[in-house]
Amino acid sequence: MSFRIVICLISVVQYGSVPLKTYLPEGDIDLTVISVPDSRNLPLNVYHALLAEEHNGNDEYKLKDIRFIDAKVKLVKCVVNDITIDISFNQLSGLCALCFLEQMDHLIGRNHLFKRSIVLIKSWCYYESHIMGAMYGLLSTYALETLVLYIFRMYNASLASPLMVLYVFLEYYSKFNWDKFGISIDGPVNLSLLPDIVGKKEIIKLGVFGVAF
Protein backbone atom coordinates (compact mmCIF):
# COMPACT_ATOMS: atom_id res chain seq x y z
CA MET A 1 0.00 0.00 0.00
CA SER A 2 1.31 3.43 -0.92
CA PHE A 3 0.23 6.84 0.26
CA ARG A 4 0.41 10.11 -1.64
CA ILE A 5 0.85 13.25 0.40
CA VAL A 6 -0.31 16.44 -1.32
CA ILE A 7 0.71 19.73 0.25
CA CYS A 8 -1.43 22.67 -0.84
CA LEU A 9 -0.08 26.17 -0.28
CA ILE A 10 -2.78 28.82 -0.01
CA SER A 11 -2.47 32.59 0.06
CA VAL A 12 -5.25 35.18 0.21
CA VAL A 13 -4.47 38.50 -1.47
CA GLN A 14 -6.37 41.78 -1.82
CA TYR A 15 -6.66 43.55 -5.14
CA GLY A 16 -8.79 46.30 -6.62
CA SER A 17 -9.70 49.67 -5.15
CA VAL A 18 -8.99 48.92 -1.48
CA PRO A 19 -5.23 48.22 -1.71
CA LEU A 20 -4.99 50.89 -4.42
CA LYS A 21 -6.60 53.30 -1.92
CA THR A 22 -9.16 54.57 -4.43
CA TYR A 23 -12.27 53.01 -2.87
CA LEU A 24 -15.59 54.61 -2.00
CA PRO A 25 -17.57 53.88 1.20
CA GLU A 26 -20.05 51.80 -0.82
CA GLY A 27 -17.31 49.79 -2.51
CA ASP A 28 -16.65 46.10 -2.00
CA ILE A 29 -13.50 44.21 -1.06
CA ASP A 30 -11.93 42.00 -3.73
CA LEU A 31 -9.93 38.97 -2.63
CA THR A 32 -8.32 36.21 -4.63
CA VAL A 33 -7.32 32.88 -3.12
CA ILE A 34 -4.14 31.55 -4.71
CA SER A 35 -3.50 27.84 -4.25
CA VAL A 36 -0.53 25.75 -5.35
CA PRO A 37 -1.36 23.36 -6.85
CA ASP A 38 -4.61 24.72 -8.27
CA SER A 39 -7.57 22.99 -6.61
CA ARG A 40 -10.85 22.70 -8.51
CA ASN A 41 -12.71 22.03 -5.28
CA LEU A 42 -11.41 25.11 -3.48
CA PRO A 43 -14.28 27.48 -4.44
CA LEU A 44 -16.91 25.06 -3.14
CA ASN A 45 -14.84 24.30 -0.04
CA VAL A 46 -14.66 28.01 0.78
CA TYR A 47 -18.38 28.41 0.09
CA HIS A 48 -19.33 25.56 2.47
CA ALA A 49 -16.89 26.81 5.11
CA LEU A 50 -18.55 30.24 5.03
CA LEU A 51 -22.01 28.66 5.25
CA ALA A 52 -20.90 26.76 8.35
CA GLU A 53 -19.39 29.91 9.85
CA GLU A 54 -22.62 31.84 9.24
CA HIS A 55 -24.39 29.70 11.85
CA ASN A 56 -21.66 29.92 14.50
CA GLY A 57 -23.09 33.13 15.92
CA ASN A 58 -19.88 35.16 15.83
CA ASP A 59 -20.69 38.53 17.41
CA GLU A 60 -17.62 40.28 15.98
CA TYR A 61 -18.14 39.37 12.31
CA LYS A 62 -21.74 39.26 11.07
CA LEU A 63 -21.68 36.98 8.01
CA LYS A 64 -24.65 36.83 5.62
CA ASP A 65 -25.81 36.64 1.99
CA ILE A 66 -23.33 33.93 1.01
CA ARG A 67 -23.52 33.02 -2.70
CA PHE A 68 -21.55 30.77 -5.01
CA ILE A 69 -21.30 31.99 -8.61
CA ASP A 70 -20.67 28.92 -10.76
CA ALA A 71 -19.36 30.70 -13.86
CA LYS A 72 -16.19 30.42 -15.94
CA VAL A 73 -14.53 32.54 -13.27
CA LYS A 74 -15.96 31.11 -10.07
CA LEU A 75 -16.76 33.55 -7.29
CA VAL A 76 -17.91 33.36 -3.71
CA LYS A 77 -19.76 36.48 -2.59
CA CYS A 78 -20.72 37.34 0.95
CA VAL A 79 -21.41 40.27 3.25
CA VAL A 80 -19.39 40.73 6.45
CA ASN A 81 -20.47 43.51 8.81
CA ASP A 82 -22.41 45.10 5.91
CA ILE A 83 -19.33 45.10 3.65
CA THR A 84 -19.59 43.14 0.41
CA ILE A 85 -16.70 40.77 -0.24
CA ASP A 86 -15.98 39.07 -3.58
CA ILE A 87 -13.66 36.06 -3.45
CA SER A 88 -12.10 34.73 -6.65
CA PHE A 89 -9.64 31.89 -7.05
CA ASN A 90 -6.24 31.87 -8.75
CA GLN A 91 -7.08 35.02 -10.71
CA LEU A 92 -3.80 36.85 -11.20
CA SER A 93 -5.11 39.44 -13.67
CA GLY A 94 -6.45 41.61 -10.84
CA LEU A 95 -3.06 41.58 -9.13
CA CYS A 96 -1.34 42.49 -12.39
CA ALA A 97 -3.76 45.40 -12.86
CA LEU A 98 -3.09 46.58 -9.29
CA CYS A 99 0.69 46.56 -9.88
CA PHE A 100 0.26 48.40 -13.18
CA LEU A 101 -1.92 51.13 -11.66
CA GLU A 102 0.48 51.56 -8.73
CA GLN A 103 3.31 52.04 -11.22
CA MET A 104 1.28 54.60 -13.16
CA ASP A 105 0.56 56.53 -9.96
CA HIS A 106 4.26 56.51 -9.09
CA LEU A 107 5.19 57.62 -12.61
CA ILE A 108 2.65 60.48 -12.64
CA GLY A 109 3.65 61.55 -9.13
CA ARG A 110 2.50 64.97 -7.86
CA ASN A 111 1.37 63.68 -4.47
CA HIS A 112 -0.61 60.74 -5.94
CA LEU A 113 -2.48 62.92 -8.43
CA PHE A 114 -3.66 59.88 -10.39
CA LYS A 115 -5.19 58.17 -7.35
CA ARG A 116 -6.76 61.37 -6.05
CA SER A 117 -8.26 62.01 -9.48
CA ILE A 118 -9.65 58.46 -9.59
CA VAL A 119 -11.40 59.00 -6.24
CA LEU A 120 -12.91 62.32 -7.34
CA ILE A 121 -14.05 61.11 -10.77
CA LYS A 122 -15.36 57.83 -9.37
CA SER A 123 -17.34 59.80 -6.78
CA TRP A 124 -18.81 62.03 -9.50
CA CYS A 125 -19.73 59.01 -11.64
CA TYR A 126 -21.29 57.16 -8.69
CA TYR A 127 -23.06 59.87 -6.70
CA GLU A 128 -23.78 62.54 -9.32
CA SER A 129 -24.26 60.86 -12.71
CA HIS A 130 -25.07 57.32 -11.45
CA ILE A 131 -23.13 55.58 -14.22
CA MET A 132 -20.86 53.39 -12.03
CA GLY A 133 -21.66 49.72 -11.49
CA ALA A 134 -20.48 46.91 -13.76
CA MET A 135 -22.98 44.47 -12.21
CA TYR A 136 -25.79 46.66 -13.55
CA GLY A 137 -24.27 46.99 -17.03
CA LEU A 138 -22.80 50.39 -16.21
CA LEU A 139 -19.22 51.65 -16.05
CA SER A 140 -16.72 49.35 -14.34
CA THR A 141 -13.86 50.59 -12.18
CA TYR A 142 -11.27 49.24 -14.65
CA ALA A 143 -13.03 51.06 -17.49
CA LEU A 144 -13.00 54.31 -15.52
CA GLU A 145 -9.32 53.93 -14.70
CA THR A 146 -8.57 53.39 -18.39
CA LEU A 147 -10.48 56.55 -19.29
CA VAL A 148 -8.54 58.56 -16.71
CA LEU A 149 -5.21 57.09 -17.80
CA TYR A 150 -5.81 58.28 -21.35
CA ILE A 151 -6.55 61.79 -20.08
CA PHE A 152 -3.18 61.77 -18.31
CA ARG A 153 -1.48 60.47 -21.43
CA MET A 154 -2.91 63.31 -23.52
CA TYR A 155 -2.81 66.24 -21.07
CA ASN A 156 -0.35 65.20 -18.35
CA ALA A 157 1.73 68.39 -18.33
CA SER A 158 -1.31 70.65 -17.85
CA LEU A 159 -2.98 68.65 -15.06
CA ALA A 160 -2.24 70.13 -11.64
CA SER A 161 -5.16 69.00 -9.45
CA PRO A 162 -7.92 66.36 -9.31
CA LEU A 163 -10.49 69.07 -10.07
CA MET A 164 -8.64 69.97 -13.26
CA VAL A 165 -8.50 66.29 -14.23
CA LEU A 166 -12.26 66.04 -13.70
CA TYR A 167 -12.84 69.10 -15.88
CA VAL A 168 -10.71 67.75 -18.74
CA PHE A 169 -12.31 64.31 -18.31
CA LEU A 170 -15.83 65.71 -18.72
CA GLU A 171 -14.82 68.09 -21.50
CA TYR A 172 -13.13 65.39 -23.58
CA TYR A 173 -15.55 62.49 -23.14
CA SER A 174 -18.71 64.59 -23.50
CA LYS A 175 -17.65 65.22 -27.11
CA PHE A 176 -16.35 61.72 -27.82
CA ASN A 177 -18.06 59.66 -30.55
CA TRP A 178 -19.05 56.61 -28.49
CA ASP A 179 -21.14 55.20 -31.35
CA LYS A 180 -18.07 54.55 -33.49
CA PHE A 181 -15.10 54.47 -31.12
CA GLY A 182 -13.91 53.11 -27.81
CA ILE A 183 -10.92 54.22 -25.75
CA SER A 184 -7.71 52.43 -24.90
CA ILE A 185 -4.69 53.88 -23.12
CA ASP A 186 -3.19 54.22 -26.61
CA GLY A 187 -6.11 56.26 -27.95
CA PRO A 188 -9.44 55.81 -29.75
CA VAL A 189 -10.29 52.33 -31.07
CA ASN A 190 -12.61 51.87 -34.05
CA LEU A 191 -15.41 49.60 -32.79
CA SER A 192 -15.91 48.08 -36.25
CA LEU A 193 -12.37 46.66 -35.99
CA LEU A 194 -12.75 45.41 -32.43
CA PRO A 195 -13.63 41.75 -33.25
CA ASP A 196 -10.50 41.41 -35.40
CA ILE A 197 -8.34 43.06 -32.75
CA VAL A 198 -9.69 40.79 -30.01
CA GLY A 199 -9.10 37.78 -32.23
CA LYS A 200 -5.44 38.75 -32.53
CA LYS A 201 -5.18 39.15 -28.74
CA GLU A 202 -3.91 42.69 -29.15
CA ILE A 203 -6.60 44.20 -26.97
CA ILE A 204 -8.75 43.16 -24.02
CA LYS A 205 -12.15 44.71 -23.42
CA LEU A 206 -12.72 46.05 -19.94
CA GLY A 207 -16.08 47.14 -18.59
CA VAL A 208 -18.57 48.83 -20.89
CA PHE A 209 -18.85 51.68 -23.38
CA GLY A 210 -16.21 50.08 -25.63
CA VAL A 211 -13.43 50.83 -23.20
CA ALA A 212 -10.37 48.68 -23.80
CA PHE A 213 -7.08 48.15 -22.04
UniProtKB/TrEMBL annotation:
- Renumbered to this chain, the signal peptide range is 1-15
Q: What Enzyme Commission number(s) does the record list for this chain?
A: 2.7.7.19
A Pfam match is PAP-OAS1
Origin, by domain of life?
Eukaryota
Q: Where is each PAP/OAS1 substrate-binding-related domain found?
A: 108-200
A GO molecular-function term, please?
Answer: poly(A) RNA polymerase activity
InterPro entries, per database record: NT_sf, PAP-OAS1-bd-rel, PAP/OAS1-rel
Key word Transport present: no
Q: Which UniProt keywords apply?
A: Nucleotidyltransferase, Signal, Transferase
Output the PANTHER family linked to this UniProt entry. PAP/OAS1 SUBSTRATE-BINDING DOMAIN SUPERFAMILY, POLYNUCLEOTIDE ADENYLYLTRANSFERASE
Q: State the name under which the record lists this protein.
A: Polynucleotide adenylyltransferase
